[in-house]
Amino acid sequence: MDSPFSLKNKKILVIGASSGLGKRIAIESAAQGANMILVGRNEDRLKQTLAALQGGAHSYEVVDINQTESVNALVSKLSGLDGVVNSAGIVESQLFSFLKEDSIRQIMETNFFSPVLLIQKLVKKKKINKPGSIVFLSSVSGPLLTYIGNSSYSASKSAITGIAKTMALELAPKQIRVNCLLPAMIKTELLGNIASSQEDLSSDEQNYPLGGYGRPEDVAYAAVYLLSDASKWITGINLKIDGGLTLR
Ligand SMILES: NC(=O)c1ccc[n+]([C@@H]2O[C@H](COP(=O)([O-])OP(=O)(O)OC[C@H]3O[C@@H](n4cnc5c(N)ncnc54)[C@H](OP(=O)(O)O)[C@@H]3O)[C@@H](O)[C@H]2O)c1
Q1: Which of 190, 179, 185 is nearest to 224 (CA)?
Q2: What is the pLDDT of residues 165-202, one digit of tens each?
Q3: Whose C-alpha lies nearest to ligand 1, atom 8?
Q4: Whole-structure pTM value
Q5: 3-state SS, residue 61
Q6: Hey, what CATH class is 11-237 in?
Q7: Which active-site residues does the annotation give?
Q8: Domain ranges in the chain?
Q9: Ligand 1 in contact with 89 (CB < 6 A)?
Q10: pLDDT tier for residue 154 given thresholds of 50, 70 and 90
Q11: φ/ψ of residue 183, rounded to 5
């Protein structure tokens, strides 16, 4: 009998699979037997993720989630999804007083509106199986704490946790679960876009009780759990993955 933690024969869509956490989630999900569909804008990096996946029938789609036509084309191609993970996201570090309207809108577009509207289309067009699992990458930043210069990013992540709770309630009768992962700092490409010096990052690492920043697999293993039948009675949660940061 398969382990309840297995993803054998599950079809899972990962949005933002070309790098960082989405890439690692795709790799670990495939290692548990899932068939992956990878989405991102950068085809070369999607191919690199694809090449790193074990077994299964995997594929990728080059899609900018902010482009409605290509999202609609993606949705029409998909069917029978057992799981959807949104890991697409961008970050900008800017003091509140200097925030530009365009950049606030851009962060909200990529981190909130586009993934939510894509998943709404998947639900309305019955592309997600019953039972099914939706996992959003939120963050500790916003729902639980924040950093100087992180206002629009924090707002976008709080918005995701807010809508995910209501989605969880409304989609429960369809046996579609909706959960959020709330990582603290994880070493991925995204860190390069945060305008801190290496010294600032190294001293920030001292704040983590379990020692330093997390690794992409720390988040990926939690995603595998939420995608698997082992978590079938769990919906509407915010699972923090933070090395103990928010205990302080
Ligand atoms: N790393 C951390 O410390 C951390 C902590 C908490 C939460 N998170 C959240 O976790 C998620 C993943 O972060 P990460 O560190 O893995 O970042 P990353 O390495 O920069 O990856 C971001 C992913 O999003 C995709 N993406 C961005 N804009 C897109 C668009 N318009 N259409 C389609 N795909 C798009 C990128 O693909 P393309 O460039 O190919 O489009 C890439 O695959 C984000 O939502 C982030 O906010 C990260």
Answers
A1: 179
A2: 999 999 999 999 999 999 999 998 777 767 577 888 88
A3: 139
A4: 0.97
A5: strand
A6: alpha beta
A7: 138, 153, 157
A8: 11-237
A9: yes
A10: very high
A11: -80, 150
